[in-house]
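Summary for the steering committee. The consortium agreed at its last meeting that each partner would contribute one worked example illustrating the joint modelling workflow. Our contribution is presented below. We chose a case with several input lines so that the handling of multiple components could be demonstrated. No manual editing was applied between input and output; the record is shown as generated.
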Amino acid sequence: MELFTNQVLAGIATGAIYACMALAVVMIYQAIDHLNFAQGEMAMFSTFISWQLMQWGVPYWGAFLLTLVFSFIGGIAIERLLFKPLAKAPILTNVAGFIALFAIINSSAGLIWDFTIKQYPTPFGSAPFLGSQLISTHQAGMIGVTVLLLIALYVFFRYTRMGLAMRAAASVPESARLVGINTSWMIALGWGMAAAIGSIAGMLIAPVVFLEPNMMGGVLIYGFAAAVLGGLTSPFGAVIGGFLVGIFENLAGTYIPGVGNELKLPIALALIITVLVVKPAGLFGRPIVKRV
Amino acid sequence: MLARRKHLIAAVATGAIAFASTGGALAQKKYDSGASDTEIKIGNIMPYSGPASAYGVIGKTEAAYFNKINAEGGINGRKINFITYDDGYSPPKAVEQARKLVESDEVLVVFNPLGTPSNSAIEKYMNSKKVPQLFVATGATKWNEPKEFPWTMGWQPSYQSEARIYAKYLLKEKPDAKIAAFYQNDDFGKDYLKGLKDGLGAKAASMIIAEEGYETSEPSIDNHIVKLKASGADVFISITTPKFAAQAIKKLAEMNWTPLHIVSNVSASVGGVIKPAGFENAQGILSAAYAKDGADAQWNNDPGMKKFYEFLAKYDADANKLDGSVVYGYGAAQTMVKVLEMCGDNLTHENVMKQAASLKNFTPDTLLPGVTINTSATDFAPIKQLQMMRFKGEKWELFGDIITDDFTN
Amino acid sequence: MSAVQEAVTAAPAIEAVPKRAMTLGVGTSLIVLALLIVTPLFVKNFIIFQMTMLLVYGLAVLALNILTGGSGQFSLGQSAFYAVGAYTSAILMEHAGMNYALTLPVSGLVCFAFGFLFGLPALRLSGVYLALATFALATAMPQLLKLGYFETWTGGVQGLVVTKPDPPEAVQSLLAWAHLKMSQDMWLYYFTLIITIAIYIFSVNLLKSRSGRAFMAIRDNEIAASAMGIDVALYKTLAFGVSAAITGIAGGLGAIAVQFVAPDGYTITLAISLFLGMVVGGVGWLPGSIVGSAFIIFVPNIAEGISKGLSGAVFGVILFLVIFLVPHGARQVAMVAQHLLGNLKKR
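What follows is the complete predicted structure of the assembly.
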């Protein structure tokens, strides 16, 4: 029983990582109706920028805020320069664009900062949380920030005009344009916000996994999986999905004999696919109705 | 008078003939593809992209080292042309690059190709083409088989050797240990684990009470550590690559778990692993080494390391000297140069292999004092010695004797 | 409030290739074929090896074109089928001593079954969800191949070494008459070429047939297709099966050419490369498969030549340039060329 609780707690801790990333994934999906494969790399690059700022003497929160601003602008810039020209191209071509962006960012980060791991500070400290040796104060802080972000996003989408405009632009672009919404800039805004959220995710994840150019590769897959499980249209679902994936993965690894450990990721993904077969829009997503 | 002249002529003639026959190596020049009067082509395959790109810096260091040798006049007057290709740690790509090097670039030797999968993929090919696959950059135990694969030779101590040394240490110092083995689930981890079990012999089953494998795709390995702590072990053997070794050190400290912690040599780098993980978390960790650590101030006045630092300053200024891979690349490249020097003017594939198998007590600048390179026709394992060390303060303290792995398969 | 999607008026996610543009013209086809047949006689073995891999990956991209361009199912998991085909051939050759040529149909059948079975649960998924499911398959495959359970067959992490076949006795004696010798590489190339041509012709005919039309109807508008009486479930799983079978055969050929199979050779990177090959070649345009294949084999080498440290970035930049200039891939280039030729002819 103790092992069970331990693994669940540990799963929540790792799940926080996935939940963070899943929020960024949902954000971009809200904006462009597609998953951006380069999301993780953008987050990694932002985290490196903040690290570099701190190396140059900027204090933690200063670097944090500067990086947020930089990521927001960077996300918009990437969209305007690289993906707006592809707006009329087939969606698969856009996906190829995401992959190209991934390669460029990953390679550049490797060249600028090399591949040795770097320690990344946390504002929350690393002491055991509430005496528990399974969750450190940093991990608790990570969960806290994720929940805060979640609330902020929920309020944004539900109660602000901008949020409503963005949702409209993504789901019914023609009608949105008729009402005067600049759908093109809504997409850019979506990119910027996704980049900013991603950077927060990166800066929260780096203290746990150590900063290096390949740090987000594994996280991104889990982030996708969590977002899909929770429902791509629901930030709340994304966060819950993240925790569920973390917990399930740990339990699968502990209790499924023999293969459980080696097949953790495939089993987690298989679970998600099973959920999708039953509930195609994810646990908390809004069902998609196709009008014929 | 005439007789004396005859004697003189005879003496000179004999001397000349004697000279001509013994100095055969000097007088005759023999070249295979990749060698000429002015040039020696050395091929290399490294993962500059992909999951193992952290090791690409080894190729970069070697290129810089060969630049240095060229600037100092080359090897026996010949310049080195170092041709290195990226295989992205993918075996099919490695095969393509190996074929390119042998058939298109026509190199004399393929030096220090990296990665067990890549080397396994090209081993048969290299041996069938009779081109040396020399000083491969992997610690897998299979590179020491001169009978079956006479053209393939390793360099660093094999993983199994290292693991056996730890096993020996445990049997002696802590015979009632309860061991938790945390290993990377690939050729590296599994090879190591086998060495550990072989070294513990009959006691392996009773001493190793928990085994936990992880995949490199996992972002964080914390949950494995949770599981291992629950096993009640008092020895933690970390068969991990740098990123995961650091995560493990950190998590152990966070959980307040203080078993005897042994970490594999590939992750013993002060700058690459211990420092990011936190010096205070790493006190008392054991490992073993065969080379000096570039971050360790105790070698600042060591003549070999001084040459290394000078080399970095002049030829590889933006290299990270804290990275163990940089030290590794230097040592391997130096060994290659030594072999080529020994070949003299006989630069054939066969002679390169022969000289590589005739290294006696060769000491590159970067190996620990007492560790030497020795090879023979039946011994294709150049480095077989390691010394154990304990982490104290901010550096590794070597202790004990240089241990030679003398296990016979 | 549910998210409403207009299924009828919305543009299809994957656009159709006009029927008359589905293959190259007779003239162009013959020229390409002649080049493929004659070139190996004049180049070194290493280039022949690269050309063999060109054909192998071309087959895999072709399979993806049938699946995605033909039936509209997005797949990032082709590397899994490729791996199964490769390992089937390798295991049969090394453990069962089977002749290399016979292993290919077996690989094809095994992969067909595998693809068909995977297609069943995939029926309920589409778009990004299907992408995730296939992605999951691709990530699972190397793990499955490493499993200790299968190690005696697969060689586990260490993989299996595969023996390269010699040209058959008949061919050798025939050539000996003319005082010619054929290298293993050259024989394997021609063997691969014959299979590639056969599969290409089969695929073109498949897409032009009733089944092909069914695929394309499903791709363009699944609901309308089912309303017209097409058995959507059958055709979708069939598409997966056929695509997997062809990819499996490609995998088997690849294993023989490279002479080695290991889990690290069949990662998600391969699946992504095949996807990129399809996009660059022109989605759904079968002749483009070989252009796509050339892109994924040679452009990384070019990128490496330009800059070792930034090879990934250079590759990304080249890829961006390609998709900016020709968003529809090589098909667009061919159309433009055809147009120009047409104009020239008129003069």
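Residues 159-289+388-404 of chain B form a domain with the Rossmann fold fold (CATH 3.40.50.2300). Residues 20-26 of chain B have pLDDT under 50 and may be disordered.
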